[in-house]
Amino acid sequence: MKRILVFFLTAVFLCACVPTPETEAVVQKDQNAMLEKAGGTLSEDNRPLAEQLAVPEGNYTFSTSAVEQRLNIAVDARVTVPDVNRLPIIRVRKARFSRELALKTVEYFLQGETLCDMTKEDQPVFDGEIRPYVNGEYGDGSYYRLEVQNKPTVRAIAEGSHRLVSAWISATDKALYEGDLESLLFLSYEEGKTVNYFERAAAAADTESESFRMAKAQCDAFFEAMGLSDTYALGYASEVLGTPFYRLYYMHRVDGFDTYISADALDRGDYAYPWGYEMIAFAADRDGVRELHWSNPIEVRDTVQERTALLPFSEIMKRFESAVKVKYAVTTDGFGGETGTMTVQVDDIRLCLMRIREQNGDGITGLLVPAWVFYGSSKLIESDGTESYNLRYGNSSGVPSGLFPVIVLNAIDGSVIDFAEGY
Asked: Does pTM top 0.85 for this prediction?
């Protein structure tokens, strides 16, 4: 079966309707007060952070119900705390992909094969320059199609069956001329039929299996070739059910600290203020990379605070148990109808750095602050029997998928971090 390869380097990754965020159960939000609290009574405690916060060993469990038993919440989650003795607050800024990195990525996957420029009738050989070509079918986007002449194999540890036929590069004219791109997409699919491994049901991967280790090696090799192996690390992996493929989500490690792992389309668009969260997601098997989605890179500006005062784990859990119930009671009532039911599960709790908007900032800078992320899933069955998964701001998935942020709490003051508001 012939395979198609598509590259997208784009300045507009996700289009969406105007967000309608749910009501959040939060403490009073005051960024100045939060920063003051973060710099409260601090000591040079060199014990592991898990010990400082009194995080118990084993899984955290909790269950509750609400809305006349139509909402059921179940938590049986491993708790991951980074192996450090402090967490900072770091100022970051919205960044762009350089043309150099974009073209280097194309060259990496094509392995030096000759490309032809398919945006012109005479199909001249692609010379490495990206030129404007407006395709009215896609509205205001400018699209660039490059075709591989010799159909090489995708880079792989072992000889694979992932064949390349064509490549696309897309962006707005302005972004191309200025050399700044917000998103990078590598997508290979069977001719005449798109195979999107991020729209299929998935379950947590067996990370000890040989097939997974080989798939991970494909992704690690990409960052090594880009000179970024110290900056990005695997954060989470799932197995695409019914296929040999894995979804591997990488996280940006800022100054050696883990950051929020994004795996949700809503993290990339208008729902994440002031801009989408960085997402690096691969679909790969032992023979090669099938898809790469990478959007919203960041650059580090400065460290606001080297060490922060964090709430004890027990206090965070008290706030979680209250906030998650209120949050999803609103969702059940608002979207489930009079008889609809909702199930919320949490199976992964992580302490990391997560970006919030900076008060009185310029809109393209933010603060990485310590946060507790409660990953899991949700399932809504509406009154008419319609099922949807991971509902957020009126949008949902048709299949279950892991690594959904059920709720996120600021680790300093315990407030709920609202993706739509950015704080």
From this structure: no
